[in-house]
């Protein structure tokens, strides 16, 4: 499965003034199966908009997105989307939250529960299966959201600043988990973040967007071997280089 983003532009019209905001302009990008790709750039440059278009939550004004050769026209089980605010169903316990999609996919409940429990155990949440989302910490909720995407066997997982509200320890734990899922299960991950160090730690490719109109400024391939050492000079130099580039586009 590969994403082909071809000549994608998105213009929003303000409801009050009727003024147009060009959120994205002429985005061309290919994402290979099993690739970990991050979108970075100044606030308002169109990262969320691009991710929502790839998922199918939003239609581009121009251009197309193809997922495995098929034009995206709406959300699909092939793609998991993890929001910043966890998006769990508050009225369902954790186990039921995890298997919600599986039931839809027509698997037996027993089979689904068994599989869900295995994942909850792997993610350190076995004892929380019967609890409700409001009884879990932010990091736990985010883990549940990740499990839900994996268990649905989506080919790709799209994440919009999914780790940004978490403390550094939890964040680093989840970074390792999501990287493992990407590399061992050959899932494609598209990851929006403000944290350049996080992007360099995780990504095969970092797409730098510039603000107004949202254009691709540069695509940086990160060739460092995993597990990456945050103190390695090549690592820190790359973080500084990308940070400077985003700063420049903010000044423009
Ligand atoms: N539904 C909408 N209606 C009108 N304008 C919108 C809408 N969604 C986004 N925009 C505009 O499109 C531009 C890009 O927004 P977007 O949310 O994609 O940026 P972002 O890069 O994700 O920013 P941040 O880093 O702050 O999350 C902004 O100027 C924003 O105001
Ligand atoms: Mg955003």
Please provide a written account of the structure:
There is one protein chain. By secondary structure, the protein is an alpha/beta fold. It has two domains: 3-78 and 154-251, P-loop containing nucleotide triphosphate hydrolases (Rossmann fold, 3-Layer(aba) Sandwich), CATH 3.40.50.300; 88-153, no CATH class. It contains seven helices and ten strands. The chain has helices at 47-55, 94-104, 109-122, 138-151, 168-185, 196-202, 233-251, and strands spanning 3-13, 20-31, 36-40, 62-67, 70-71, 79-82, 156-160, 188-192, 205-210, 215-221. Strand 4 and strand 5 form a beta hairpin. Helix 2 packs parallel to helix 4 (138-151) and helix 3 packs across helix 4 (138-151). 35% of the residues are buried. The model has no long low-confidence stretch (mean pLDDT 91).
Q: Which features would summarize this protein structure in a list?
A:
4-stranded antiparallel beta sheet, binds magnesium ion, Rossmann fold, 10 strands, alpha/beta, 2 domains, 252 residues
């Amino acid at each position: 499965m590969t994403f082909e983003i071809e000549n994608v532009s998105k213009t929003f019209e303000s409801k009050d003034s009727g003024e147009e905001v060009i959120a994205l302009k002429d985005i061309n990008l290919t994402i290979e199966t099993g690739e970990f790709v991050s979108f970075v750039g100044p606030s308002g440059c169109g990262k969320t908009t691009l991710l929502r278009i790839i998922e199918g939550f939003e239609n581009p004004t121009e251009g197309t997105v193809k997922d495995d050769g098929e034009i995206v026209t709406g959300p699909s089980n092939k793609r998991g989307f993890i929001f910043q605010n966890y998006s769990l169903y508050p009225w369902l316990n954790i186990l039921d939250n995890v298997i919600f999609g599986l039931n839809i996919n027509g698997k037996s409940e027993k089979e689904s529960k068994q599989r869900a429990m295995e994942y909850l155990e792997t993610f350190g949440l076995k004892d929380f299966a019967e609890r409700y989302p409001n009884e879990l910490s932010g990091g736990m909720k985010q883990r549940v959201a990740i499990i839900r995407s994996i268990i649905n066997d989506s080919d790709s997982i799209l994440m919009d600043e999914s780790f940004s509200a978490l403390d550094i320890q939890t964040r680093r734990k989840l970074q390792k988990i999501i990287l493992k899922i990407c590399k061992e299960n050959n899932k494609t991950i598209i990851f929006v973040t403000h944290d350049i160090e996080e992007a360099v730690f995780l990504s095969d490719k970092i797409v730098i967007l510039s603000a107004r109109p949202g254009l691709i400024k540069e695509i940086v391939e990160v060739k460092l071997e995993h597990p990456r050492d945050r103190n390695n000079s090549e690592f820190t130099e790359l973080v500084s280089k990308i940070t400077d580039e985003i700063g420049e586009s903010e000044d423009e």
